[in-house]
Amino acid sequence: MTTDSNSELSALQRQVYSLLIALVVVSGTLTTYLYRQASITGKDVEAIRPQAQQIIGVFNQNQALVMNFVNQLVAYGQTHPDFRPILLKYGVNAAAVPVAPKK
What we know:
The chain is an all-alpha fold and 103 residues long.
């Protein structure tokens, strides 16, 4: 019985050792792959950064114009109560637009 137990124990030790080697290989492969992907992504981000900064700059320049337009819409909605539902529909600062009584 002890020889069977010893041979089974020896087989289990070999199997655990083989699985440990496989785990190390898979972990190393995954680590290498993720490092390479992070490196490529970093290079892509640096390549796109100037274009993104240009787009953000244009957005910031146009934001004042858009806010001015929205304020004009709100002012128009204050003097024309029939226009208020349209402002409400699109969520344009509806709280600032009071409902004027109809004559």
